[in-house]
Amino acid sequence: MGNSYAGQLKTTRFEEVLHNSIEASLRSNNLVPRPVFSQLYLEAEQQLSSLEAGSRADNEEEEEEEEEEEGSESSSPPVSYQVKPPPEGCCTTDGFCQAGKDLRLVSISNEHIEVPSGFLLVGAKSPNLPDHLLVCAVDKRFLPDDNGRNALLGFSGNCVGCGKKGFCYFTEFSNHINLKLTTQPKKQKHLKYYLVRNAQGALTKGSVICWKGTEFRGRQSSTSTCSNTLFQLPESSGLSGSTSSEPLPPANPSAPPGTQQTAAAVDHTPSTAAFSSAVYNGKESPKKQLMKNNLSALTRPSVLGTLTNSGPPKKRHKGWSPESPSSTETWNLQLNPQASNRIKNDGGSLSSLPHSALVGPASSPMVGSGEPVSVPDNLLKICKAKPVIFKGHGNFPYLCGNINDVIVSPLLYTCYRNSQSLSRAYEQYGASTIQPISEEMQLLLTVYYLVQLAADQVPLIEDLEQIFMRSWRESHLSEIRQYQQAVPQAFPQVPSQITPVTSAQLPWLAGLAASSCNDSVHIIECSYSLAEGLSEMFKLLIEGKLMKTNYVVIICASRNRAIDSCIVITGKYQARVLSESMLSPSDYQKEVNYQLVTGKVETLGSFFSTLCPEGDIDLLLEKFYQENQGHISSSLSASVNKPTAVNGAGTAVCTSYEIERHQIRPFQLAVAQKLLSHICSIADSSTQNLDLGSFEKIDFLICVPPSEVTYQQTLFHLWHSGILLELGLEKEHLTKQRVEQYVMKLDAEAQIKFQIFLQNSVQNPHTLFVLIHDHAHWDLMSAMHSLYPQTELSTGLVDRLLNCREVKEAPNIVTLHVTSFPYALQTQHTHISPYNEIHWPSSYSNGVDLYHENKKYFGLSEFIESTLSGHSIPLLRYDSSFEAMVMALGKRFPRLHSAVIRTFVLIQHYSAAMMAVCGLSQMKNYTSVETLEITQNLINSSRQCPSGHGLMVVLRIPCIPLAAVAYERLYNVRERLALEDNFEIILGNPNSGITIGKHFVEQLKIWHKIEDVDWRPQTYLDLEGLPCILIFSGMDPQGESLPRSLRYCDLRLINSSSLVRTSLEQELGLAAYFVSSEIHTEKAVVNDVLESDPEKLSSTDNEDEEIPTEGSTSEKRSPMKRERSRSHDSASSSLSSKASTFCTESSPPQALGNSTEETTNNYERQKQKVDKGAQTTISKHLPPVTEQLDMKQNIKSTQVSITSSSSPPFSSSSSSSAPTHNSFILQTSQCSMTKASKQPPIVFLPKLVYDIVTSTDSSGLPKSSSLLPYHSVMWASSFRPLMSKMMTCTEQSLYYRQWTVPKPIHMDYNNRNEGRMDTFHPRRLLLSGPPQIGKTGAYLQFLSILSRMLIRLTEVDVYDEEEININIKEESDQYYHQPGDMWPDLESFKKMPFDYTIHDPKYEDASLICSKLQTINSEERSMSRRQEDMYTCRQTTRMRLSKYAAYNTYHHCEQCHQYMGFNPRYQIYESTLHAFAFSYSMLGEEIQLHFIIPKSKEHHFVFSQPGRQLESMRLPLVTDKSEDYIKSPTFTPTTGRHEHGLFNLYHAMDGASHLHVLVVKEYEMAIYKKYWPNHIMLVLPSIFNSAGVGAAHFLIKELSYHNLELERNRQEELGIKPQDIWPFIVISDDSCVMWNAVEVDCSGDRKSDYTWTERNVSLKQILQHIEATPNVTHYALIGMRKWSSKTNSAEIKEPFSCCHVHDFLMLNVDLTQNVQYNQNRFTCDDVDFNLRVHSAGLLICRFNHFNVMKKQIAVGGQRSFHIKSKVSDTPVSISPAQYICAPDSKHTFLAAPAQLLLEKYLQYHSHRFFPLSLKNYSHPVLSVDCYLNLGPQIAVCYVSSRPHSLNISSSGLTFSGLLLYLCDSFVVASFLKKFHFLKGATLCVICQDRNSLRQTVVRLELEDEWQFRLRDEFQTANAKEDRPLFFLTGRHI
Question: Which among 266, 534, 1618, 1711 could bridge 1608 via Cys, Cβ 3.0 to 4.6 Å?
Answer without folding.
Answer: 1618
